[in-house]
Design brief:
Order of helices and strands: HHHHHHHHHHHHHHEHEHEHEHEEE
Structural class: alpha/beta
Oligomer: single chain
Shape: globular
Helix content: 40-55%
C-alpha cells in the first residue's frame, strides 16, 4: 500500500498496540482503535490477528477506506484470495480514485495465475496512481508499470512487458527490479540496442547490494561467480527481512564449512533432526511445476522408481492441478502428495514441518513460482536446492546444492554458499 501514514514503524509498534488497546477498553466501538491495533499487527506480520481487528473496525465503520485496504492486504497475505479480492473491490468502491485496491487485486490475480486480469488491474493502478500525494505518486505509478510488466511477461507478451519496464524506469531510474527485468526481457527479445549499458548498470547495482535484483535473471548476465553470489546473498537477506519472526523452525546459519560470503547473511543454527523420526527416511520435494511442466517431465520417472526404494517421498505442490495426465501421474508416483496451493507461506511451512521431513528439496530455487520464504522459515533441518535454479542461493537456509561438474566447475565452488554435491554425469535425471 502506498502512502500509508497510519502504519507504525519499528520500535513504535509496541507503543501503538498499547495505545490501541487502551482506546478500545475505553470504547469498544472505537473503530479507529481497532484499525490502529490492526495496523500494528500488520507490521508484525500477524495477519490473522490483523484480520480479526479489521473485521471489528469495518463492522463499526464500513466506509473506512484504510481499514478496508489493510483488510484486503492481510487476507492476501493469508492466502484467502477470494475474500481479499472482494474486500479490495469494497475499498475501490469507497475511494474510486485510489490505485491501492487495484494493486491488491492485481496481486491476487497474479498469485492465482490469472495474468490477463492481473495486467488489467495493474494498468488501472497505473492510471490512478498519479492521484497519490507528493512523491508517492511517481513511485506508485512506476510500481504499477513494473507489476504489469511481470504479468505481461507471464502471458508471453515480452515486447509489451519490456515497454512497461521502460515506463517504470522513466519514472524511477533506481527501481532495480524493473531494471533487472528489462535487461532479461531485452536479451530474450534480441533487442541488443543499449543492452551493454543497461547490463553494466545492473552489475554496478549488484556490487552496491541494491535490493530487488532477481538472481535468476542475473544468471543471464556476463557476471563473475562472485557477482552472482553477491546478488543471491542480497536477495536472501531481503527474504529473511520480510519473514517477521521466522515463525516456523527458525532460519539457519551456514555450517562451519560454509563460505564466508554466505555467513554474512546471518541467522541461528538449524534445528536438529527429530530423534523420533520413522526408520524410513522421509524426503520432501517442493515445486510449482507438478503439472504439464518441465519439472514434472524431468522428475516423474525418478519419483516412480523411488516408490520401491528405502525412502518415503512426499510431494508438496504449490500450484493447483491443471487437470492433466502428468499431474495425476506424478501425484500417484509420490508416497504422499500434499496440495499447498492457496496457502500462505507460514501455513505451507507449518504443513511441511508437520510432515516430519528429513531432507527437503526446493525444485524451484529463485525461478518462477519460487517459495523461498517457506524455506527461510526452516520447516526442515536439511534443505537442498536442485534442478530449476542452477545457481547459488546465497542463503543461510539452503544447505546443499545438487550439481554436476559442468553446472558448478571446481574453480567456481568457493562462490557458492551451499555445500556442493555433484552427480557423476548430469544433475538432471533425464
Amino acid at each position: 500500500m502506498s502512502g500509508d501514514a497510519t502504519r507504525p514503524e519499528g520500535g513504535d509498534v509496541l507503543v501503538a498496540i498499547e495505545r490501541a488497546v487502551a482506546a478500545i477498553r475505553r470504547d469498544p466501538r472505537d473503530a479507529r482503535g481497532w484499525s490502529a491495533l490492526a495496523a500494528a499487527y500488520f507490521t508484525l506480520g500477524q495477519h490473522d490477528d490483523a484480520v480479526q481487528a479489521l473485521e471489528r473496525a469495518r463492522a463499526i465503520d464500513p466506509a473506512d477506506f484504510d481499514s478496508a485496504l489493510r483488510h484486503a492486504a492481510s487476507l492476501l497475505e493469508l492466502g484467502r484470495d477470494e475474500e481479499a479480492l472482494a474486500v479490495a473491490r469494497d475499498a475501490a468502491a469507497v475511494d474510486p480514485t485510489s490505485a491501492d485496491p487495484h494493486f491488491i487485486a492485481g496481486n491476487v490475480h497474479a498469485s492465482r495465475g490469472e495474468h490477463t486480469e492481473a495486467a488489467d488491474a495493474f494498468a488501472r493502478a497505473a492510471s490512478l496512481a498519479p492521484r497519490a500525494a507528493g512523491d508517492d505518486a511517481q513511485r506508485a505509478t512506476a510500481l504499477a508499470h513494473y507489476n504489469r510488466a511481470l504479468a505481461l511477461d507471464e502471458l508471453g507478451r515480452w515486447t509489451d512487458a519490456a515497454r512497461a519496464c521502460e515506463a517504470a524506469l522513466a519514472l524511477e531510474p533506481e527501481l532495480w527490479p524493473a531494471l533487472a527485468q528489462l535487461v532479461f526481457l531485452k536479451r530474450r527479445l534480441c533487442e541488443w540496442d543499449g543492452v551493454d549499458a543497461l547490463s553494466a548498470r545492473l552489475r554496478e547495482a549488484v556490487a552496491d547490494e541494491r535490493e530487488g535484483i532477481t538472481p535468476f535473471s542475473f544468471l543471464a548476465e556476463p557476471a563473475t561467480p562472485a557477482e552472482q553470489l553477491r546478488c543471491a546473498s542480497t536477495w536472501a537477506r531481503s527474504i529473511l527481512a520480510r519473514s517477521p519472526g521466522i515463525p516456523v523452525g527458525g532460519a539457519s546459519a551456514p555450517t562451519a564449512q560454509r563460505r564466508s560470503a554466505a555467513k554474512s547473511v546471518g541467522a541461528e543454527a538449524p534445528p536438529t533432526v527429530n530423534p523420533t523420526r520413522p526408520a524410513r527416511m522421509r524426503v520432501g520435494l517442493v515445486s510449482s511445476g507438478f503439472n504439464n511442466h518441465p519439472t514434472a517431465l524431468l522428475t516423474v520417472e525418478l519419483i516412480e522408481r523411488l516408490r520401491e526404494s528405502s525412502i518415503t517421498t512426499i510431494g508438496f505442490a504449490t500450484t493447483a492441478s491443471d487437470g492433466g495426465a502428468l499431474r495425476g501421474r506424478i501425484a500417484h508416483a509420490f508416497h504422499e502428495f500434499v496440495e499447498l496451493d492457496g496457502d500462505a507461506h507460514a501455513t505451507m511451512a507449518q504443513r511441511i514441518r508437520d510432515a516430519r521431513i528429513d531432507v527437503l528439496f526446493d525444485l524451484r530455487g529463485y525461478g518462477g513460482g519460487s517459495v523461498s520464504e517457506v524455506f527461510a522459515m526452516r520447516p526442515c533441518a536439511r534443505q537442498v536446492n536442485w534442478l530449476a535454479y542452477p545457481g547459488t542461493s546465497g542463503a543461510p537456509f539452503i544447505d546443499v546444492m545438487i550439481a554436476d561438474s559442468f553446472v558448478v566447475p571446481a574453480d567456481a565452488e568457493p562462490h557458492y554458499s551451499e555445500r556442493i554435491v555433484r552427480m557423476p554425469h548430469a544433475f538432471q535425471p533425464c
